[in-house]
Specification:
With about 350 residues, the protein is an alpha/beta fold. Among the domains are: about 50 residues, no CATH class; about 140 residues, Rossmann fold (3-Layer(aba) Sandwich), CATH 3.40.50. About 45% of the residues lie in helices and about 15% in strands. It contains eleven helices and eight strands. The strands form two sheets. The protein has a four-stranded parallel β-sheet, sandwiched between helices. Helix 10 links the parallel strand 7 and strand 8. The relative contact order is 0.14.
Length: about 350
């Protein structure tokens, strides 16, 4: 353990402080504390008030959000969360999985670096907050922190807003730790390999192979792409690299986008519509994977495995297989650990 000591060259009466450790702070989107109305409302208010997520002027958006959306959506979203909730642990699947990922990464870092590295996680929205976990790391002697948003692909509404929150927390520190943020890892070979292994294992367990694999990514308004957000390009490259790693032809894998919100045009094709088109075109057996999510959550367990599945089956689809996110699978943990180790170079070798 790292005990408090006097800084080098400090006078004898200088108070002892903990220092010398490196913190690895994992970050994911977030989760409500419960699926009932008020916890859902607090979570949705924080999430939908983020200008990185909804960039309409506050004078226009906030009356709609506070007066209409937050009076109704907590009920419907709460029902969706209730359908996937981990009732045994009293938390959402995202929270359970993130805890499991953190525990495995912590062990991997300890095996490599010993007590030099402290590993923990935070959420951009909800609890545990970025500020509380960063403060804890500083108090435990972390004078360097590697902040790792668990999004393979960069987007302003995910990676950037997580980084923003981390920087806000740094602004409140009297003695700021040296800090780094982990960039997107959408083309990291170990990540692509982990995706491919998950597909290969899923296909090997099926009696009848799917006609096509649908890579469903979270969507965003098309104008974000025009403004320079690289998300779409990175998603398309991940699909291409996955297809090449699997040794497949172009007609065996497609990319689509889900979770459209609001009246704007979003990235296309829309998953919920396109799977129905596939069924009508004779693709009666499909598999769906969500490469942009590091952990299963409401968008995968409820939206893909219920809403999108229903759209496919109502259009005549016969076999729908959802391939889970990489979650805490050992191939995923090795990929994430490699990304961490690469970004710790110069601090720890």
């Amino acid at each position: 353990m790292f005990d408090a000591t006097r800084p080098a060259h400090a006078p004898a009466d200088h108070p002892k402080v903990k220092m010398g450790r490196v913190g690895v702070l994992l970050a994911n989107l977030g989760t409500p504390d419960d699926y009932t109305y008020w916890p859902m409302r607090r979570y949705l208010n924080e999430f939908l008030s983020d200008r990185r997520v909804i960039d309409y002027p506050a004078w226009k958006w906030q009356p709609i959000l506070q007066g209409i959306i937050l009076s109704k959506r907590p009920f419907s979203s709460g029902e969706a969360y209730k359908s996937i909730w981990n009732h045994d642990k009293g938390e959402s699947p995202l929270m359970t999985i993130t805890k499991d990922q953190t525990a495995k990464i912590k062990q991997a870092m300890q095996d490599r670096y010993g007590d030099q590295v402290m590993v923990d996680f935070c959420m951009r929205y909800g609890n545990p907050s970025t500020k509380s976990k960063m403060r804890q790391m500083v108090s435990e002697g972390c004078d360097r922190i590697l902040f790792f948003p668990l999004y393979p692909h960069y987007a302003g509404a995910t990676t950037a807003t997580a980084n923003d929150q981390f920087f806000r927390a740094l602004m409140e520190e009297t003695w700021q730790p040296a800090s780094r943020t982990v960039p997107s890892y959408y083309d990291e070979p170990a990540y692509i390999d982990a995706l491919a292994v998950s597909v290969e294992n899923a296909y090997a367990a099926m009696e009848t192979k799917p006609d096509i694999l649908v890579c469903s990514y979270h969507g965003m308004p098309e104008r974000y792409l025009q403004q320079g957000d690289p998300y779409h390009c990175q998603c398309v490259k991940t699909s291409r690299l996955l297809k090449e790693r699997l040794g497949w032809s172009d007609d065996q894998l497609i990319s689509t986008f889900q979770s459209r919100f609001g009246p704007e045009e979003w990235l296309k094709p829309y998953t919920v519509d396109h799977v129905a088109d596939l069924a009508r075109q004779g693709k009666k057996k499909i598999a769906v994977i969500a490469p942009a999510f590091s952990a299963d959550c409401i968008e995968t367990l409820e939206e893909i495995n219920e809403e999108i599945k229903e759209s496919f089956e109502e259009a005549g689809g016969e076999q729908f297989t959802y391939i889970p996110c990489l979650n805490d699978d050992d191939t995923h943990i090795r990929a994430l650990s490699k990304v961490i180790q690469d970004n710790l170079r110069g601090w720890l070798d």
